[in-house]
Amino acid sequence: MPRLARDHQPTLLPAAAIDRTMRAPEQVYRVLRSAIVSLAISPGSTLSEGEVGAAYAVSRTPVREAFARLAEEKLLDVFPNLGTFVSLIDPRLIGEAILIRRLLEGEAVSQAATSRDPILLTEMSKALADHAEAVAAGDATAAYHCDERFHRALFAHQGLELMWASVDRARAQLERVHHLMVAQRGALGDALAKHRAILSAIERGDAYAAHAAMHVHIEANGIFLDRLAGHAHPFVRTP
Questions:
Q1: Between the chain's N and C termini, which has fewer beta carbons within 10 Å?
Q2: How far is CA 68 from CA 64, 197, 219, in A?
Q3: Which of 93, 97, 75, 94 is nearest to 31 (CA)?
Q4: Do 104 and 98 meet the contact criterion of CB atoms below 8 Å apart?
Q5: CB-based contacts of 57: which residues, under 8 Å, 6+ apart?
Q6: For the segment 71-80, what is each residue's pLDDT rounded down to a tens digit?
Q7: More confident position, 9 or 135
Q8: Which runs of consecutive H residues, i.e. helices, occur in the chain?
Q9: How confident is the model at residue 63 (pLDDT cuts 50, 70, 90)?
Q10: Alpha-carbon distance 175 to 223, whole Å?
Q11: What's the average model confidence in pLDDT over 157-182?
């Protein structure tokens, strides 16, 4: 259940302009999802259809549709007659998300190391170079987008669209842990170093090493969350 001790205060929503030539529900969904995943909207925050609709000058209908998608992804908790809340980070869901990513990304990276497709290697190298620039500039938002490009390329260039859809959904849970880790430890360059190890193994054609490097990368989020166990954190669900 959400924490209801304090009086309700409107949640600060990210600024966004809705393009009237495109579907509003998709745009509202993407704006809210990005803010939730990046922790710009904190876990435990309240969201209301009316406030979100007013912020983006849309009716409640597209907001309700966006809320339904976010609830399906376990990013929102909807309590009838009580309210809608950004889900707390749930260690159980994190464990499941880690398992999904280990299985699917482990397979994708092994396949990439076997084929060593030049187009894929170029795209991953570009994402890595841009990631390094973002880290050097201390730009966490840009670093996150480069991180996503790196992982998405593994699937897009190998025609693994269904696998990527599952990974992307799992990433939404893990990225919240990643952003919390960066905020608490200043570990903005951790993912960059792990990406370098993954790409190096792929370039060498070493499927085993690539698979192992990907596992190390993915497990980092779970290790950090385990270290928080026993230390009450307002963003993390307790058993």
A1: C
A2: 6, 38, 29
A3: 75
A4: no
A5: 18
A6: 999 999 999 8
A7: 135
A8: 24-37, 49-56, 60-72, 91-115, 118-137, 140-156, 161-185, 190-204, 207-228
A9: very high
A10: 14
A11: 91
CA distance 90 to 112: 32
From 233, 219, 146, 154, select the one nearest 189 (Cα to Cα).
146
What is the C-alpha to C-alpha distance for residues 147 and 179, in angstroms, rounded to an integer? 12
**Helix ranges, 85-160 (H):** 91-115, 118-137, 140-156
Phi-psi region of 15 (alpha: psi -120 to 50; beta: other; left: phi over 0): beta
Among left, alpha and beta (phi > 0; psi -120 to 50; other), residue 48 is beta
Q: Which residues face 77 on adjacent strands?
A: 85
Joined tokens for residue 83: 């309210």
